[in-house]
Fold these 3 entries.
Entry 1:
Amino acid sequence: MGRVNRVRPWVATFSAALALVIAAALSLTAAPASARVAYLTDADAKVVRVIDLAAGEVVSPPIPVGHETDEIVISPDGRTAYAVGLNAAELAVIDTETHAVETIDVGGITRGVAISPDGATVYVTRSNEGEVVPIDAETLEIGDPLFVGAYVGALAVAPDGQTVYVAKYSSSDVIVIDAEEWAVEATIDLPPGAGPSDIAVTPDGETAYVANSFNSSIVPIDTGTNTAGATIWVSDSPYDLAITPDGGTAYIAHWTDPGLVSVFDLGTDSVVKTLTVSYFPTGVAVAPHGRTAYVYSQGQGRFTSIDTATNAPGSVIDLPGSPHEGTGDVAIAANQPPTAELSAPAVAYAGTPVTLDASASSDDDGTESYAFDFGDGSTAVTGNPTRKQTYAEPGTYEARVTVDDGDGCEPLPGFAELGLASPFTGQAAYCNGPSRVVSEPVAIEVLPLPRLRLSVSLERAQLLGQALQVGATCVAAECVARAFGRIGPSGGQDPALCA
């Protein structure tokens, strides 16, 4: 079988367009409406644990995978997690809804895993064999291994899906693979003894950052020229790093005691703050909205949140069975776009309220607001999916609703058209579509309120001399009338009876 990567052809004008819009675009801030969750690999317990981020608690029971788990990634659609084994030749394929696990033998000791931004291909490194293996995400068929040199580790895929970056921790270099041709494109030398442990790519695809645990450094790589930049010295043993959705900051987990996390400014390529968390942090991830980072300290079995606005540590979750041994990783599913559905009566009357209903809309993590456009020039934004509107004049109006899930996802132009998740940072997909979705228009025909003509008939004859009173209650064109009292003679009516 040949290589299985099937990323769609790139657009020649994309890079230029992206350069013009990226700053503005990035500045924006499964079950019915399920909570956002994080997936943690627990090598010691041979399970993947699931944490409800909103509730701040572990979802039970853990997912058994049968081997010591190490790195984990999640498909852009959020339906599947892929975890490689530590000292095992296995890839665990996890259904995130049912937690069912399928194990794939990849033919060699695994070390790293990454997924393409279209979700079509999973890449796994076979460490001792020095090979990268592509796996078809739909069929789980293993493609042709590509030899790049012994002791390969971490992987990252470019946001356009065209390039795969592979770290070789023994020889301290990074291999650049053309994913379309499935061939080595370049070898980038790092400082001797660097020991690269992780790679992440900025959402614009222009720079890849390599964390080097052996010599405690970060090295930026210009992806256009495939050249390494100046070495940036950081705290001891940088092990894992995650770039925020806006491409402005990287959070670096240092495998140390005490556990350190560096806040790394990607604009200046410098550490702006160092935090202390539980010891031996080996995994770090950022939520799709970019407001919170999460650090997994496998050594103590703790999961710590970080407010990215203040860069202050927040809540801490203690995992079952601590203390733990070995390493662990953390991944958070990409935000999925909401659905926007609107219903309303086809016919209404001028001057009378009509109810517009968007409650059939849905989102994977709950809806923040509904913005109603009534089609008559008026709008309303509310947290309630229903809204009443009174149309003053007859006519036909097209109403719409915009559903916003509040995560601030705005895919960069060019990515969505190619079926690519965006922003994407090499291993983590943050958004699988926009946070704001507009419904199809709903036509409402508003009619003039008809002139009321009220007539009263009595079921039996009435005696002369009684008075009769009539009352009516009307809603739109529907009326209910009531009559009571005495009736008297009028005109040429029979003096004895009035029917």
Entry 2:
Amino acid sequence: MKLRLLLGDQLNLKHSWFDKQEDNTFYVLYELHQETHYVIHHIQKIVAFFSAMRAFASDLQKQGHQVLYFDINSPASKKSLEDNIKDLIAEKGFTKFEYQLPDEYRLDQQLKSISNHIDIPSESFDTEHFLTTREDLKSFFEGKKQLIMEFFYRDMRKKFDLLMEQGKPLGGQWNFDKNNRKKWKGNPAIPPPFRTKNQGNQEVYKSITQAGIKSIGTYDAENYLFPANRTEALEQLDYFCKHLLVHFGDYQDAMHTAQRNLFHSRISFALNTKILHPMEVMKVVIDHYHKNPEAIALSQVEGFVRQILGWREYMRGIYWREMPDYKSRNQLENFNQLPDFFWTGKTKMNCLKESITDSLETAYAHHIQRLMITGNFALLIQCHPDEVDDWYLGIYADAIEWVQLPNTRGMSQWADGGIVATKPYVSSGAYIHKMSNYCEGCQYDRSKRTGENACPFNSLYWNFLDDKKEHFQKNNRMAMMLRLLEKIPALEKEEIKNRALSVIENPDAF
């Protein structure tokens, strides 16, 4: 008799495990304190995962599979995964243990240990989700000094024949990123976000509260937007194609106080829990484009495909190439703590107040809010990357370590020394103004470097360059900014650094 373990991000109904019903096979899913406690998670993230897990278990049972489900208030929830597996084996007399390969190093090691400490044979299986293996990216960049994502992305386009025409990129170019940097100023109109019809969320929320799980953020039906099953996820994808894709690429980097979602699909939760497969998502979007070539520009579609086929697979490859050492990298030697306002949103800096409040209320923020607002500020005040990792991993519903860690520690904090990003993604207030209306409602002046009402990002930016310049002396992409730094008069530079130090020492006062 076989026991098959399914993790909370392995909710793939299309997996070959489920092609047929087997009387001697049982599937088990656990809601564990182990998984709610290793970092403090957003309440909507916990609700989203448990809702999706319960819906998945129900769907499996409807297909005729035998499912063992242990919720967060069961005695099993407080035990370790290993103890639970051993208990089930002893209780039911299972003769084989099987599991799908985890996408998180921590769980990968734990399941290997479990397999070595049980008295029955065990076997692991691929999740049948990703388009590459753990080792593909490492092999692709073998012998290369830099791991440039664009080269990997182009190879993936050719390999899977996506947006290709006779061996060449559709439209004559690979990347339309320059078309994807428009500031949204109120037009075109943005449709309301897709809302799920799942009725079980309140019940799940009550069970989490009853279990006394510590969390961050808020939960209410108005802000909850995560699908629980394939039906809802496919409806969300269809909604994106029909209502949002037409302007997705243009405004994918934009930010606005009146619009949290803009034209983003918000499909990342369904993808990262494996409710949807990346290939089916891309094909649905590409097919919709081909059916509406006059209404939808190629740049909108290419920008979307690049995020999934290129960036998502690339991040996973980086994660498995660099772990476990990657998790402890701190190339810039940053050691400060995150400000308290990252957990409250209470700051006078409008861009941070808006982005963090969005995150606390929805367990979501799009990539530029994460990279160029919260991540930018955390790097400029020189926070320890462990602090930043824990916050990002906890607050966002789509955050699973394989995708969060290289995006945060690599792309956002440059703690990996340039493995992911060729230069740090830092900016002054000018970029924030360029891509948003945040500066318009802020008490700080985006044009000033010093003075009581000067935008903190400005002094922090130049102070960061000065503090870390030794790290970037040989970085060609930083050369121009370092030259500009040297041209700042000594007295003004001292004023800039004093202003920056006041922010770094007491960020919650700003």
Entry 3:
Amino acid sequence: MRQVAPAELAARLAREPGTVAIVDVREPWERSLCAIEGSVHIPLGQLPSRLAELDPARPTAVVCHHGVRSLRACAFLAHHGFGEVLNLQGGIDAWARDLDPAMALY
């Protein structure tokens, strides 16, 4: 598992479309405010029961509000055999501030 800055993740998504799965582990009310297009919503508490929905062979970037819950999710995924796990440093808040000023902040 490694930390990835918003600009680095965005560049990789642009360079390699469709190769990186983005998993949003925030709560539904948070996701209703803003989300990264194409991300899969699996709240952190549901991750163990929904693990089969994800491909451990596919690079996986995990997103939360500020990067703390996603760090826990990344550790969980790595422990369960996911090869390339990326934690979005600063979370969706950093994504909005650095890359998408039209995205809602909360």
